[in-house]
Specification:
By secondary structure, the protein is an alpha/beta fold. The protein is built from five helices and five strands, in the order E-E-H-E-H-H-E-H-E-H. Helix 1 runs parallel beside helix 2 and helix 2 packs across helix 4.
Amino acid sequence: MEFSVQYHNGFFEVKTFGDAEVGKFRDILEALVTHEKWKSGTALLINHTELNSASLTTDDMRTIVNFNAQYSDQVGKSKCAHLVARDIEFGMVRMWEGWVENKWDVSEKLFKARDEAIAWLLD
C-alpha cells in the first residue's frame, strides 16, 4: 500500500493506492500530524478510490481505530470525508465509522463523489 499527502486550500487530501496494509494507516496519521502545514482541526479528505481493502479483517479495522485514538489529540476536532469507489471500501469505512465514533473528536462522512466530499469539508 502506498499513500500520498497533499495540502489543498483549507484541507489535506490523503490518497491511498494498492492493497491495504494495516501499519500504513498509522504511517498516514504520522505523516499528517508532522506535515509542515498541519494544524489540529484541519479538514481531511481520505481518498480510497484506488485502494483494495479486501485483505483487511475486523481485527485489522479495530487496530486502525486504535491508531486513530492514539492520534486523537493531534488531529483535534475536525471533519474527515472518505471517498470510495467500490462497495467493499464503502463497507469497510462504515465499519470503521461505527468503531471510531467515541475514540476521537472528528466528524466523519462517506462519499462516492469527490466534489460532494470537498463541499462538505469546506462548509
